[in-house]
From TrEMBL:
Cofactor section: FMN
MF terms (GO), sorted A to Z: FMN binding
Domain Flavin reductase like residues, every copy: 73-223
Record key words, sorted: Flavoprotein, FMN
Gene3D superfamilies from the UniProt entry: Electron Transport, Fmn-binding Protein, Chain A
Region (Disordered): 1-30
This protein's name: Flavin reductase like domain-containing protein
Amino acid sequence: MSAYQVPPDHNLPPFDHNTPFKRQEPPNPNWKFGQSIDSSEAGRKWMEGEQAGWMTFDAAKEKPGDLYALLLSGVLPRPVAFVSSISSDGVENLAPFSYFNTVSAHPPTISISVNRGPNEKDTSKNIKATKGFTVNIISEPWLEQANAACIDCPGTVSEWPITGLTKEPSIYVQAPRVKESAFSMECILNQVVDLTPDDTPGVPSTHLVLGTIKYIHVRKDMLNPTRNVVDPDKLKPIARMGDISYTRIRDAFRLPRFSWAKEEEGLRAAGLVEEKEQANL
């Protein structure tokens, strides 16, 4: 058995497990309604890049592989769903997916987009067959274990022993959750939406899985002591970038939610309200 090796990247420092999570001011804390981007030095420098011009990609004309790489490099960071599922024959599967997010809190719903190659992936087949699965959020200390589940082993082989991760029984679905994950969701299948390209009619390229969340398991040491919300500094979640790159969350800033009732008078006085009468329906 070969040793686990990271692809060669020269002169990289070792991973710093002790980098502190910090909260800071937003990028332009003095911004006011109506101010353009060139009101700050950072904004002016950002817009200087436009002098290089634009490249526009016609999605209908791009090769699927090239479009895939472009989207992954530009839509980021992406949260990662580490999905545990089980086949109708009882084979337990683990796989990470970065086309993933929550889409509703009421009803509590998540989405996972499962791309398919020549054959449908085990995850979407299993979810359609057994209707239940778990989504486990990956944290820094066990990223390598989760990444091992990317291996393209046959559908008759379980990724669990390969990853070294620990099964924890679920209370509602058959598929186990990952014990090492400090935030896990037990889900049941809501529906699968098949996405089919125009050039392959009748042959879907992607299965968009919508799952209803039945139970959420959160390790107590992850929670804010005064509210039932997760502390990101403790969870240390991992996100996907482009190619085979990952990233982590190490700083945050807060921005206000504005109220029209409070701001309308000032916005009108500043001449910033453009209003059109709605047609009678």
